[in-house]
């Protein structure tokens, strides 16, 4: 396989979901069902789509979502994501499952990115990996993924007899008492609260899909909630992230940052998320596809296209800055009409 070529197994790994892939399809359908309302005769000669997240400057309100097996899609792994993010002017999510090691990243990238943690060992291991992430100097925030207490069934991978876990080295798991997911399945809100108290970095809790869980995350010490159904790759028949975003934003208030992912592909999608309360949008499948197709430069080009799309969408809805984006630029269609009335 060529360096940036996606064969059938990797394509299905990147683009697929769990079980019947209902959640995967729902993510896209729900985004498409929200309409944007054009507004005219406003001064949009200058459009500024920039924002920030925990002191990380974002040229557009986007981060590269963490991909554990990013090394299968680009030989440089998470280093390629970080390089692209810094070249464009956003932050990259770096998974604990990804290569290279935290220490190697620390020699090249300083304080610009977000470390994503799966609970892969016991409490001693968790404390150590949190310490290593902070000591590396590469990260401005810590993201704890909480929607994988059990790993889902992904039929495409099973049919292809493909296991990402066996296909790539994971240097950050090389040291310490790594388990087989048993401790992860016992990880509860009280343990999250302890983890938040250990971290020198603001904590983001990823995998939130209800207002109740969002409030619990904030009560445990999280600085941000990450609304996500894992791109349709965990619980099948779950709601889409964009459908749950208004409810969650209303529950946690403006003091808590909100990131959202799952199904976002265009600048218009980003505008919809910001209008419904998101501080930033995570790019997962698009992130992996761009890196595989064109390396870090391909990712930069994809971000440039998103920026152009977002800028045009902001201008045509009469919003020269993100602070002026509100639900007034949206109208619901039939799939989202019920929650729209309840959450306004």
TrEMBL record:
It is an enzyme of class 1 (oxidoreductase). Residues 1-335 form the FMN hydroxy acid dehydrogenase domain. It comes from the Bacteria. It comes from Aquibium pacificus. PROSITE patterns: FMN_HYDROXY_ACID_DH_1 (PS00557), FMN_HYDROXY_ACID_DH_2 (PS51349). Keywords: Flavoprotein, FMN, Oxidoreductase. Transmembrane segments: none annotated. Its EC number is 1.-.-.-. Its cofactor is FMN. The keyword Flavoprotein applies. It holds the Pfam family FMN_dh. Belongs to the FMN-dependent alpha-hydroxy acid dehydrogenase family. GO terms for molecular function: oxidoreductase activity. The keyword Transport does not apply. This is Alpha-hydroxy acid oxidase.
């Amino acid at each position: 396989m060529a360096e940036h070529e996606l064969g059938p197994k990797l394509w299905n790994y990147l683009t697929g979901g769990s079980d019947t892939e209902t959640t995967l399809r729902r993510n896209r359908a729900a985004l498409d069902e929200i309409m944007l309302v054009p507004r005219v005769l406003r001064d949009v000669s200058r459009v500024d789509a920039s924002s920030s997240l925990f002191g990380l400057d974002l040229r557009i309100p986007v981060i590269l979502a963490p991909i554990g097996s990013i090394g299968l899609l680009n030989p440089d792994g998470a280093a390629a994501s970080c390089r692209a993010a810094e070249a464009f002017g956003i932050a990259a999510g770096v998974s604990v499952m990804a290569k290279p090691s935290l220490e190697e990243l620390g020699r090249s990238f300083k304080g610009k990115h977000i470390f994503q943690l799966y609970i892969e060992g016991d409490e001693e291991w968790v404390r150590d990996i949190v310490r290593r992430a902070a000591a590396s100097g590469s990260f401005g925030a810590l993201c704890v993924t909480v929607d994988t207490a059990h790993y889902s069934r992904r039929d495409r991978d099973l049919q292809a007899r493909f296991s990402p876990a066996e296909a790539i080295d994971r240097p950050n798991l090389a040291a310490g008492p790594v388990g087989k997911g048993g401790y992860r399945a016992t990880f509860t809100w009280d343990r999250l609260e302890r983890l938040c108290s250990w971290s020198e970095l603001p904590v983001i809790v990823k995998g939130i899909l209800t207002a109740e869980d969002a409030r619990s995350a904030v009560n445990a010490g999280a600085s941000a909630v990450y609304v996500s159904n894992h791109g349709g790759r965990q619980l099948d028949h779950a709601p889409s992230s964009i459908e749950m975003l208004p409810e969650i934003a209303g529950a946690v208030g403006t003091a808590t940052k909100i990131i959202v992912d799952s199904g976002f592909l265009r600048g218009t999608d980003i505008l919809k998320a910001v209008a419904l309360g998101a501080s930033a949008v995570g790019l997962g499948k698009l992130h992996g596809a761009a890196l595989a197709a064109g390396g870090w430069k391909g990712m930069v080009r994809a971000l440039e296209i998103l920026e152009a799309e977002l800028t045009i969408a902001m201008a045509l809805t009469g919003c020269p800055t993100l602070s002026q984006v509100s639900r007034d630029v949206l109208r619901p269609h039939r799939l989202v009409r019920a929650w729209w009335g309840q959450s306004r």
